Amino acid sequence: GAVVSQHPSWVICKSGTSVKIECRSLDFQATTMFWYRQFPKQSLMLMATSNEGSKATYEQGVEKDKFLINHASLTLSTLTVTSAHPEDSSFYICSAIRVAEAFFGQGTRLTVV
Amino acid sequence: EDKVVQSPLSLVVHEGDTVTLNCSYEVTNFRSLLWYKQEKKAPTFLFMLTSSGIEKKSGRLSSILDKKELSSILNITATQTGDSAIYLCAVRVRGSQGNLIFGKGTKLSVKP
Fold first, then answer.
1. Residues of chain B found within 8 Å of residue A91, distances taken between Cβ atoms
2. What is the pLDDT of residue B97?
3. Rounded alpha-carbon distances, angstroms, from residue A81 to A18, A63, A88, A110, B54
4. Which of A9, A41, A44, A77 to mutate to test the interface with B (most CBs of B within 10 A)?
């Protein structure tokens, strides 16, 4: 089946620094990728839709200047958490669409200290 | 506003029991409904349903879509402790570039 790889799996960073998370579709091209955030004991929350070659579409309430998304190629989208704060600590997951199905990355556990 | 509602929110059963999880939706331009199993990390895809009345099966899991009732059920027979997870239902609508509308999930706990 289709594979979506997310890197890193977990990261610890200091407050005020920026962290980049990569999402790659390994065996297919994805013009659209999605970024989600999961809060403890809650379901996934869609943060933004990443479109190859154009600006990402952010969901209401998501700060686009804080969560920078770049989709420079058909197989790679990146999410950069800028000036991270402890409240940004969470589990971030990406997904990519192939045909009519969504495939998820392994997720990235971000801890900001 | 498009929405997906799952019930129950939480469920505790014993090994061997059969469970039925529900998902109802109110969306414009329905395209497909998907079930995922979410454990510690990312969700695992279970089923995608597009046609009403056709049951999909995978081992002890099965699911069916009822477009008339705007709902789907996920059945798990002979539950095992490894089935403990959050089960997510998501709906894709046409023209959304594949975006998924997620329900809040059903947390299933299977006790030995």
1. 41
2. 47
3. 5, 10, 8, 10, 43
4. A44
| Cβ–Cβ below 8 Å for B43 and A105 | no
- What per-residue confidence (pLDDT) applies to B101? 76
**A72/A42 Cα distance (integer angstroms):** 31
Looking at per-residue pLDDT, the higher value among B72 and A72 belongs to B72
Find the helix or strand (DSSP H, E) in which A68 lies.
Answer: strand A67-73
Instruction: Find, in chain A, the residue whose alpha carbon is nearest to that of B106.
Output: A43
Find out whether A21 and A10 touch, Cβ atoms under 8 Å: no
pLDDT value of residue A13: 95
Answer yes or no: is pLDDT of A100 > 60: no
Measured between alpha carbons, how far is A95 from A77 in angstroms, rounded to an integer? 10
